[in-house]
Specification:
Elements (H helix, E strand, L loop, with lengths): L13 H24 L6 H44 L5 H24 L9 H12 L6 H15 L2 H10 L4 H32 L8 H13 L1 H9 L14 H13 L10 H8 L3 H15 L6 H7 L5 H28 L5 H20 L3 H11 L5 H12 L4 H26 L2 H4 L4 H44 L21
Helix pairs in contact: 1-14, 2-6, 2-7, 2-8, 2-9, 3-5, 3-18, 4-5, 4-8, 6-18, 7-8, 7-14, 7-17, 12-17, 12-18, 12-20, 13-14, 14-15, 14-16, 15-16, 15-17, 15-20
């Protein structure tokens, strides 16, 4: 296993050497298992300090993402639980719910991410309080126009959160820690979708028409109550990056330790954003290649949003069952997302190798739902689409490592990629998954998505090629600098000609 016995002056029997080697092998295997499970070997001091990060950053980020996905995603559960009929939704207005949300998201996305490069990783903490207020407002809507307006506002309020958290994590966690923590953060979306389904199912059975309010309105009231603790905890928990943090839970000694951790992996302190820096980012490949990759990913992970349409068209399930069935997919997504990240980190940051798995699963699921071979197969195709969502955390862990030495590029690339991914989500489903035209099969839309799934798979290898090219360039540069340092400039010593002795005649 590459572990050599320590040298000693005492001659030991061969059998003892073999025994020592066996212990060493066993130990190294156990360490490898621990690395796969959680962060690997480290000093007790570092372990405690990373746990401190988890206590504050991860608790706030995960709960915050949970309530955001709960509040933004419960619109589907409300729609199938009576909101459609109560507010007289018709045609493609269901698609417009996502379009207005995404439009608001886009309005706030890039400005908030640029602000992030100048200020804290959470650009505006009061946004979290506003989010909670808007969630309550959904319970009082009377028209579809009011729903669309609130969807736009809540999309705008959500825009700084996910990319800000990912940038924040990249400023505090090392590569062996980052992937699994992004996955834990992202898994809150599955938990939120599952909980929303169970919550709506329970409310529909127990509170529908209670106090004269339909069950879907009670859903928004309960979601607003659940959202309240998030912004309150964020006031105390959110740090800045290690170089400028003023978090109350960090003393100067701990700050120094965190800075040293980042310096060891070449995560540098932020610098003021300038036009020169923006030009440098635009001239570097990650912003273009990663953005295209995320566009493909965002589009081909949409089918589960239309699972309920197909289920409802079968006329064989109750509202309660339609709310519950998609939670099975969410559970699958939760397990697979965590598995991808754990394996990726545990194998020493194997990113592209792990990403191949969810990309392949996505293509298989897309082909199945596009062909629609039958009830069982179509149900399975929708279900396994959720197993492809785990590509997102591994990709962003990879982006943090690719842009490790430039905090501004890291923030801009993540923000722009996420923005353009949502841009395409805003209009592509409206065109190719129009509920009014193509429901319940969506054959044309899912066929297009099958082709885009191939594009997602291909982009993994495109990114890998660029990463390897950069590594080769860096290696050549380092080799050139080493040779330059080793070459001693020799000053030639002038060669003196032998003195010519004048010829003297002998007499």
């Amino acid at each position: 296993m590459g572990i050599q016995p320590e040298s000693t002056d005492v001659i030991t029997p061969v059998a003892d050497d073999a025994s020592d080697n066996q212990v060493a092998v066993k130990k190294s295997r156990w360490i490898k298992i621990r690395e796969v499970i959680w962060d690997g070997e480290r000093s007790p001091e570092e372990r405690k300090l990373v746990q401190r990060l988890d206590l504050f950053i991860m608790s706030w980020a995960t709960y915050g993402y949970f309530i955001r996905l709960l509040d933004s995603g419960n619109i589907t559960n409300a729609y199938v639980s009576g909101m459609k009929e109560d507010l007289n939704f018709h045609g493609n207005q269901y698609n417009l719910l996502a379009t207005f949300f995404t439009s608001g998201y886009l309005v706030g996305q890039i400005p908030s991410q640029l602000l992030l490069t100048k200020r804290k990783s959470d650009p505006s903490q009061p946004i979290e309080f506003l989010w909670t207020i808007v969630t309550f407002c959904f319970a009082a809507v009377r028209t579809t126009k009011q729903v669309f307006a609130l969807r736009f506002i809540i999309g705008m309020l959500e825009s700084p959160f996910a990319v800000g958290v990912i940038t924040l994590m990249g400023s505090w966690y090392t590569p062996r820690e980052l992937g699994k923590r992004i996955a834990i953060f992202y898994s809150a979306s599955y938990a939120a979708s599952m909980f929303s389904g169970y919550l709506q199912a329970g409310i529909y059975k127990g509170l529908d028409n209670h106090l004269g309010l339909p069950g879907w309105r009670w859903l928004f009231i309960f979601c607003g109550i659940i959202s309240l603790p998030g912004p309150i905890w964020g006031v105390f928990a959110i740090p800045d990056n290690p170089y400028t943090t003023k978090a109350w839970w960090l003393d100067e000694e701990k700050k120094k330790f965190y800075i040293e951790r980042m310096q060891k992996i070449d995560r540098r302190a932020p610098v003021p954003l300038s036009w020169t820096k923006i030009g440098k980012v635009l001239g570097h490949w990650p912003i273009w290649v990663v953005t295209l990759m995320l566009i493909f990913h965002c589009v081909v992970t949409q089918p589960l949003n239309y699972f309920w349409v197909w289920l409802k068209s079968l006329d064989r399930f109750s509202v309660y069952q339609i709310n519950l069935f998609p939670t099975a997919a969410q559970a699958l997504g939760l397990v697979t997302t965590l598995a991808y990240a754990w394996v990726s980190d545990g194998l020493g940051g194997k990113r592209w190798q792990v990403m191949i798995v969810p990309a392949t699963i996505n293509f298989i699921g897309m082909v199945i739902v596009a062909s629609g071979p039958g009830y069982g197969a179509t149900f399975f195709g929708y279900l396994i689409n959720a197993a492809s969502w785990g590509l997102w955390p591994v990709l962003y862990a990879w982006v943090n490592e690719i842009c490790h030495d430039d905090a501004e590029e890291r923030a801009i690339v993540i923000g722009v990629a996420q923005t353009f991914g949502q841009v395409f989500v805003a209009w592509v489903p409206v065109v190719i998954l129009n509920v009014g035209k193509y429901a319940p099969r969506f054959k044309m839309g899912f066929t297009v998505m099958s082709v885009l799934s191939v594009g997602e798979f291909t982009m993994i290898f495109v990114i890998r090629w660029f990463v390897n090219r950069d590594k080769r360039k860096a290696a050549l540069k380092e080799e050139s600098e080493v040779k330059k340092d080793e070459v001693e400039v020799e000053i030639p010593t002038p060669v003196r000609k032998e003195e010519e002795i004048p010829y003297l005649p002998v007499y």
